[in-house]
Design brief:
A hairpin with a 2-residue loop joins strand 1 and strand 2. Helix 1 runs antiparallel to helix 2, helix 4 packs parallel to helix 10 and helix 7 runs antiparallel to helix 8. This protein starts with 5 loop residues before the first strand and ends in a 5-residue tail after the last helix. With 247 residues, the chain is mainly alpha-helical. The chain has a two-stranded antiparallel ribbon with strand order 1-2.
Length: 247
Amino acid sequence: MDGSHTRRGQPCWFRVPKVGMIAANDGVLLRNHISRILKNHFRDKPYYVDLLDLFNEVEFQTASGQMIDLITTIEGEKDLSKYSLPLHRRIVQYKTAYYSFYLPVACALLMAGENLDKHVEVKDILVQMGIYFQVQDDFLDCFGSPEVIGKVGTDIEDYKCSWLVVKALELCNEEQKKLVHENYGKVDPACVAKVKELYKTLDLEGAFVEYEKESYEKLTKSIEAHPTKEVQAVLKSFLAKIYKRQK
């Protein structure tokens, strides 16, 4: 959808010769396999309907996040003044946090016979973790090595509402803001280089290191406040997997 070239170190499926737009139908087939797999393994379980509801809800949330992300980058309607931390947060909460972090833990809770309504604080922690994860992703898109992260970052060219551009607009003076407006969202490598140079001038690497430290401390404090040691252990294992990741 965003015209990328690589994902996880390989060409995007739609760019493979003879695939093209057939990829859209392949996506539909894969999506249909979710309910088939759940039916195959869990139809006799008391939590089966709740599991189906959970997957449907999270799919809707993810698609909504993707929609917000895509409509902020529509050609002819590009407007950097709309880009803010609340908009960035809304996009990543829906597009990334629910399916990447909340869904697997919610599945485990349902299968353990728990009522999800009684675990709102767990959901909140996982959503915060997902937002932190996406900010890392935004940072690595620009500052990470393509060989390590498995894709060539194109957030600048794609006019994405990235944490980096939102932070840059927060920190820069009028002249620097003009530079961002003139060069952000352009495919020309010279324009991309100017934006990256500004990011370095504004020390966005330092700002990210500070954000990562604060996020880790806040998440650790929230996790340790949870009354159940088993839940704490799961949440801490999630956090350990992503803290200071390079890919």
